[in-house]
Amino acid sequence: MCFFFFRKTATCVASWVFESVPVDSRMNSKARSLLWTIRRFSTLLPRSRALRIDPLGSCRPEVIHSKWNPRNHRLNVFDEGLQPSVRYLFQDIFISKSVHGCIQTKGISHSAVFKPDRILCPRTLSFDAKHSFASDGTSDHDLKKINFHHTSSEDVFTKKVRPTPVNYKKLAQECNSLSDVLDTFSKAPTFPGSNYFLAMWIIAKRISEDKRRFERQLMFSHPAFNQLCEQMMREAKIMHYDHLLFSLNAVVKLGIPQNTLMVQTLLRTIQERINECDERCLSILSTALVSMEPCMNVNALRAGLRILVDQQVWNIKHVFTLQTVMKCIGKDAPSALKKKLEMKALKELGRFSVLNSQHMFEVLAAMDLRSVVLLNECSKVVIDNVHGCPFKVLISILQSCRDLRYQNEDLFKSIAEYVATTFDIWKLKQVIFFLLLFETLGFRPPGLMDKLMEKVVQEPGSLNVKNIVSILHVYSSLNHVHKIHNREFLEALASALTGCLHHISSESLLNAVHSFCMMNYFPLAPINQLIKENIINELLTSGDTERNIHKLHVLNACLKLDESPYKSMHMPLPRLPLSASQPDEKLAEVLSRLLEGEGRFSRNVPLPHNYHIDFEIRMDTNRTQVFSFSDVDASSATNMQRVAVLCVPKSVYCLNSCHPRGLMAMKIRHLNVMGFHVILIHNWELKKLKMEDAVTFVRKKIYSDEALPTTDTTV
């Protein structure tokens, strides 16, 4: 009773001193001594009845389980040299007046919360504590004389019942589901809460996608989930920075919505403490930000990360960290920062492992940096180690090359040859995925394409609609023809497509028939289905109508010009917009000098079925003499050959070859049907030549009997 009376008296005096005595330079030494004594008595009071502060500055009562004291767990992250009494003293310094109405119950204690001006944080504890002592006029020498090692009987009891921090790896091994982790948390919550999220993410990674989706729903509905989120927000200010970053990464990967209060609190706290970021933290933070959608806090954090990387780029020691950071900074990063990261990567090139070289393609594509030197060096490593490379890695490399517009024929050949050599171990959809990427890169792998053609001929029943449309698109676009099984291949695809007509969409049917027609093959059942009035109307009024109209015009041209049974069919289609194509000016000047005047050739000649040619020349059938357009009459028409001169870019050919792609091969075939002899002038070769050399170059093309590629134009 005496002790209780003394404690109440000390509390009242403390309240009176805080409210009435200003702390300034005029305070006399006796007042300071009295204040210090009162505070010392306050720290000696039993903790269960002392006023406590919420370190997060929350404005609501804090619910604390009797066997789970957040203060006890916060002590773990404090400096070991700082004794408990000093911590209690430091916390009490920020109390400016007493708080009444504290209610206690058995098992759970509700302590009133006072929001201080400064949030208590272990990162600044030592400095603030020292500063607080100095502000009271107490010297360091006086502090040494004070015994800070007082331990009450309740302190000893609390240490005995304090739960030990849970190990997230061990927890992930012991639990089989996300709900099991939350059940463990609800029984005995421990610090830090990040360990529970990490354990749940480890469990989520090892289960199937369908089960993960179901477990995520159970996680959101679990009664302890909200409690764990609240604990996570309370601990954000005081946990170690790397734990904070691991928490953000786990929370995002678990699929917790990004606009929730917890995620935004973590993002804001990470922003405030970003100066604590070391190389390891840079890697964790970059990994988390890569998978997050843009928002105000994410954008601000990414901007801060860029500044930090710009300052620390030369101090990064690990190649993996460098690549993770490069992938995170994004395509809109400043050019100077991209260049600096490129120079750092070139400097570390000698330390690249095989995995680093494979990963570098995706990294450069993520930041939209087309570093040819880096790509060339990494390509050499990939070529030397392509055998055994996983499917996802090879696909990622090809996708990155497509995004960066990087064409390396040796790299593509090595991947295609590896897939063709190990053809039997790949699934059909994997092979088709490889070919689709090769098609976007303009690369034609004959060996791999022949292998797939043989498989289609042998097993046409294994194809679905998506496979059929994709295969037809690749083979028509790359204009590939099998020397032996070409007819059987087309018939097998047509048969498989006919079996799918009852459930195929109009656009998929149009794409398939369009590809067949480009390859000069006309399957009756699919075409009859496509040219129905209701199908045509649907294509003209829904979906990508501009693209559909263009493909229908191509289909109509093939049906009219090629050997098909539909020459008399009329397909009412809207007109295509006129293309603003201009013939090459240098080639026009070369022809003017070569043919001695403008009257011996015509420019930009329009033709039926939306075709046009750059230049037309009229010659004799032996192509030894050029006629003027005004001199051609009915008598000379029988001995006349119309010559179409086309100035073409590299894109009309397959990569590093003279093999025309599908549309160009079809145009050459149709121009031949219209009576033209076609001459192709490569614009990239013409640009390199001086005028005299260009005239000689074009003369050889026009007056010689140089044959066009026959394998492609006669398909």
TrEMBL record:
Parts of the chain that traverse the membrane: none
GO CC, any one term: mitochondrial matrix
InterPro entries: FAST_kinase (IPR050870), FAST_Leu-rich (IPR010622), RAP (IPR013584)
One Gene Ontology molecular-function label: kinase activity
Alphabetized UniProt keyword annotations: Kinase, Mitochondrion, Transferase
Keyword Mitochondrion: yes
Cited Pfam families: FAST_1, RAP
GO annotation (BP), single: regulation of mitochondrial mRNA stability
Residue ranges annotated for the RAP domain, each copy included: 643-700
Record protein name field: FAST kinase domain-containing protein 2, mitochondrial isoform X1
Organism: Mus caroli (Ryukyu mouse)
Name of the gene encoding the protein in the UniProt record: Fastkd2
